[in-house]
Amino acid sequence: MSEEMPNASLEIHNERRFPQDRDTLFSAVADPAKLARWWGPHGFENRITAFDFRPGGSWRIVMTASNGDEFDNHWSFLAIDDGRMVRARHHLPMHDFILEMRFEDHAGGSRLVWVMEFEPTEENQAMAHFLKAANDQNLDRLAQFLKGENDDR
Fold it and tell me: Which residues form the Activator of Hsp90 ATPase homologue 1/2-like C-terminal domain (predicted)?
């Protein structure tokens, strides 16, 4: 439970290890040009229309599916611990939830711990399996992006 979402008791937890260091991993979230290249499940392209990366700042991203459907997403950054953690709230009309991304050092690279907090509504419980799989796709895309970044060096 959190003070930002007092009735949150449904959590979706994903994590992934990466060969890149923690700062490189964090920069893929903190830099909107990088973030736009990997965010979302497979088949989406992104356009970031606002990105004020600070506690209290706003983030807007338009995700375009392969069929052309657009999804306008609005986020607020709640807390940022540079290089270590980002906590943000995704606002309605789609899903209202808190996402916390923790960036950790790990032998040979880093680890991203990705936790979504929802209120335990029937709709959210029905979406949990889909969202866990979509998060895995998100992390797949992040891994592919980071691999390409290393190949460019």
Answer: 22-146
